[in-house]
Design a protein that fits this description.
The protein starts with 9 loop residues before the first helix and ends in a 6-residue tail after the last helix. The protein has about 450 residues and is α/β, with parallel strands linked by helices. The strands form two sheets. It has a seven-stranded mixed β-sheet with strand order 3-2-1-4-7-6-8. Helix content is about 40%, strand content about 10%. It is built from 18 helices and ten strands. Helix 3 runs parallel beside helix 9 and helix 4 (about 90-105) packs across helix 6. It has helices at about 10-25, 35-45, 50-85, 90-105, 135-150, 165-175, 200-210, 210-215, 230-240, 250, 255-260, 320-325, 340-345, 350-360, 375-380, 405-410, 430-435, 445; strands at about 125-130, 155-160, 185-190, 265-270, 275, 290-295, 335-340, 385, 390-395, 410-415. Its main location: Golgi.
């Protein structure tokens, strides 16, 4: 087969015929396969394999390697999911040390803000930012980048909301690292009288429902039919099962009008953003009676970030979804939103949010899977005013090919996705935009070995 010279093309036709036969043939279970193509060629020459045997072994080898590559890809995705869901040792250390500092150092417990600045917390002449997080390091970057980018930092007020276990550490950080002339308030969820079980019944159910908790905290590969899915779909499903999606901190933004009854407008920031430009012009945008100023995510060319419509988030085979929603309706982004709380208080947004969450729970999460954005897309329908895309660049947490020039120009860059900049799986070329706001001279940062990459 290897030595014959055939100018008529007959040899090629014969070999093509053999390949077509082998394509549908059963591969014997006991077929011994070489480890490399070189070894296959050597065995063929030494054992004088006929063309059919050669082709059958080649096919079996290729299928074996394809299975191994596929299994390796799924294992990589699982490992990345676990890395994204875990708390890095350095960040855990930072929280523990600052919590200990709160109990032993009176300076770490000082009132935030100081008594003479308390009126500013409800003064609408200031620019009020709300940040909800249990990540102290991430919070420090959001606050530092906002203030350093502000043209009038003395007009900036930050309302940092965290959970009960993180409150002492978060308070310690901002008490020991003042951001004057800006103002910071740190509050725990437990300190809001309004956040009772009566007012957030659905979220109590989400956090406490055993099947829901198992979905987000259980074995994410058990029962999964990996042979019938692609790595990309599997990755999306894993991201949808991040435990953060059943955290009250993640749902807290839907209660802003009640949590801040005296404020007219706020900018809500996720903890995985970096501010690179003065955001005060956001308060000057005419929302035209709408509640939510947000960047739309359906008018870009890339599939991952800016080509999102309702069909990307909802299961339109579910009758309630099909009857009430348009699959082509444009989606918008959470992460950097300007909210008109006065207009919001005149709507039923919170009630709609709760109602749809209840329906999804009753449907065993068959209406949508991914977190807090889908119910918000429904609840805010008719209440969103599109703002210029340059205000908010998304995808730095899963889009390795993010254009660096676009990153440099954006007012807010958002590391949404698994590859957060504080994780080892973060993209090296995008991390410096975040690390430039980490205070590496701080003793707590140094002692917890949170090192600049």
């Amino acid at each position: 087969m290897f030595r014959r010279v055939d100018h008529s093309g007959r040899l090629v036709r014969d070999f093509q015929k053999i390949l077509n036969e082998v394509k549908s043939a059963d591969i014997p279970d006991n077929l011994k396969l070489p480890d490399s193509f070189d070894q296959l060629v050597l065995e063929t020459q030494n054992n004088q394999y006929d063309a059919r045997t050669f082709a059958l072994k080649l096919r079996a080898m290729m299928e074996k390697f394809e299975r191994e590559i596929r299994e390796s890809k799924f294992a990589e995705l699982m490992n990345k999911h676990f890395a994204a869901s875990s708390v890095p040792k350095g960040i855990y250390c930072l929280s523990l040390r600052l919590t200990d500092e709160y109990s032993s150092n009176a300076h770490a417990r000082k009132q935030l803000p100081s008594p003479e600045l308390l009126p500013s917390l409800t003064d609408n002449s200031y620019h009020h930012f709300v940040l909800s997080t249990d990540n102290i390091l991430a919070a420090s970057v959001v606050v530092a980048s906002t203030i350093q980018s502000s043209l009038k930092p003395e007009k900036v007020v930050f309302h940092v909301i965290t959970d009960k276990k993180t409150f002492a550490g978060m308070h310690s950080w901002f008490a020991l690292n003042p951001v004057s002339p800006a103002i910071v308030e740190v509050k725990g969820i437990h300190q809001f009288d309004w956040l009772t079980r009566e007012n957030v019944p659905v979220l109590e159910a989400v956090e406490g429902h055993s099947s829901i908790r198992n979905y987000y905290h259980g074995n994410h590969i058990a029962g999964a039919n990996l042979s019938s899915t692609t790595p990309r779909i599997f990755a999306s499903k894993l991201q949808a099962r991040s435990p953060k999606y059943i955290s009250l901190l993640n749902h807290l933004r839907i209660y802003l009008p009640e949590l801040f009854p005296n404020l007219d407008k706020v900018v809500f920031l996720d903890d995985d953003v970096v501010i690179q430009r003065d955001l005060s012009p956001l308060w000057e945008i005419d929302l035209r009676g709408k509640v939510n100023g947000a960047v739309e995510t359906c008018k870009g060319e890339d599939d991952w970030v800016m080509s999102k419509r309702f069909k990307n988030y909802f299961n339109f085979s579910h009758p309630l979804i099909a009857e009430n929603l348009d699959p082509e309706e444009c989606a918008w982004a959470y992460g950097m939103n300007i909210f008109d709380l006065r207009a919001w208080r005149q709507t039923g947004i919170r009630e709609a949010y709760h109602a749809w969450l209840k329906e999804n729970l009753k449907s065993n999460l068959t209406m949508w899977k991914l977190g807090t954005l889908p119910p918000a897309l429904i609840a805010f329908r008719g209440h969103v005013h599109p703002i210029d895309p340059s205000w908010h660049l998304l995808g730095l947490g899963y889009q390795i090919k993010t254009d660096i020039e676009s990153v440099k120009k954006a007012a807010v860059i958002h590391y949404n996705g698994q590859s957060k900049p504080w994780l080892h799986i973060g993209f090296e070329h995008l991390r410096p935009f975040w690390t430039k706001y980490v205070n590496y001279s701080n003793d707590f940062i140094r002692n917890c070995h949170i090192l600049e990459s």
